Amino acid sequence: MSAQLEAKGAHNLALIILYGAIMAMLFATLFIFIYDQQLNTLVDQQAELLANELAKTAFDSLSGGLHSVNLPSDLGGSTYSVSIKENCIFVVSITAGRRSGSSYSALVNSTITVENDNFTPGGRIFFMSSGDTITVSASPIAAKEEKIIQITAAEPPQFYHFSKQSPREAAAIVAAYFNARGLYPGENLVVLSFAKEGENSIMVKLGKGLENIIMRVTGVENQTKVGAIENWWSVTSLEIAAVGDNFNWTVCPSPENAYLAGWLYSPEAVLKHLRSRTWSRVSDNSIVTVPSDARIEASAVTTRVSTYPAWKVQFGDYLIFYRMLPWWELENTAGFIFQSLPELKPLT
User: Fold this and answer.
1) Residues facing residue 96 across a β-bridge
2) Selection from 182, 202, 169 nearest residue 296 by Cα
3) Please, which pLDDT band fits residue 265 given cuts at 50, 70 and 90?
4) Entry pTM
5) 328: buried, middle or exposed (CB in 10 Å: 19+, 13-18, 0-12)?
6) pLDDT tens digits, residue range 43-73?
7) CA-closest candidate to residue 336, choices 299, 284, 287, 294
């Protein structure tokens, strides 16, 4: 009897062991299957993220400056390639390993041109826009610097010399001139004269056809140091003034002649020039892009050398002063070009 029980026990034990082995194999197979699916999903996710990141960075480059994406060495352990189809679609293709043969894409609503298509895993892809076109390259893109205005006259006009002697008045006159151009597009505007009205207010008389316009330009003095600039005066308001001729008017050299000859920069041209370049903050080397909606105002800046009319460009916590006029090469004193706070330096 006991022998039968022992044999039955041994048989049951064998069944239990066999059952346990089978269940272990089933669980192992299930685990391997789930793990395999997770690895496949990881490749899918990383490839989709990379395609979307490329498209997003390309779109962001439309705001100006040089942008880039670091390419991972692999995607979930699989090798891959990056290509651009139809001049607007980023395609990430798995070339070997898990999900080999799969492709993932992201669309950009802009035209893409490829300068260098040697996109290598572990490398970088660079993006830079020009208008509505985005240039993409596996190597850094040299910015096509926007020329502000080409100087067409060999010698500076009278307004250039006037701006050296009366920089604050010159800044106010330029502010009034370009403001009037915006208020009366297509009109033949001529700056006739100016008059001081107190310490920080300057009246500018402009001719518009058969009538005259008087514009009051008001500014404030600021003692904040910006690089080599020790203090500066900046225009805060411009308005058409209903006043009589009870001022001591002084005839003014023509800013329009200076502008047409390339000796005076418009605010739009200066902003376009600054946006065409990539800037780096000196303190931490972070990339700074000048936005299209940056505020720009006429100013007069004072350094240890002299006082110069300049354009003040402001956005966020950044303050940039850029020259309002080029400096004649035959001058024997230094001119003003650029100062900023925080300090910026051009990368391209």
Assistant:
1) 79
2) 182
3) very high
4) 0.62
5) middle
6) 999 999 999 999 999 888 876 667 889 999 9
7) 299
Helix spans in 61-195 (H):
158-165, 167-183
What residues contact 301, with CB distance under 8 A and at least 6 apart? 226, 229, 231, 232, 307, 308, 310, 321, 336, 339
For 116, list phi and psi in degrees, rounded to 5: -145, 115
Q: What amino acid occupies position 138?
A: A
Q: For the segment 286-321, what is each residue's pLDDT rounded down to a tens digit? A: 888 898 899 999 999 999 989 999 999 999 999 999
What strands lie across the sheet with 124-130, from one edge to the other?
67-70, 124-130, 133-137, 111-116
Query: Is 171:235 a contact under the CB 8 Å cutoff?
Result: yes
Using CA atoms, how far residue 225 sits from 221, 228, 302, in Å, is 12, 7, 10
Least Cα distance to 170 among 265, 91, 70, 289 occurs for 265
Of residues 55 and 146, more confidently modeled: 55
Half-sphere exposure of 282 (CA within 13 A, CB side): 10
Mean pLDDT of 252-256: 92
List, as one string, the DSSP characters of 190-249.
EEEEEEE-SSSEEEEEEEETTEEEEEEEEEEEE---BTTB-EEEEEEEEEE----S-S--
Distance CA 163, CA 192 (A): 16
Question: What whole-number distance in Å separates Cα of residue 145 and Cα of residue 241?
Answer: 40
Phi, psi dihedral angles at 190 (to 5 degrees) = -130, 125
Task: DSSP for 31-51, please give it.
Answer: HHHHHHHHHHHHHHHHHHHHH
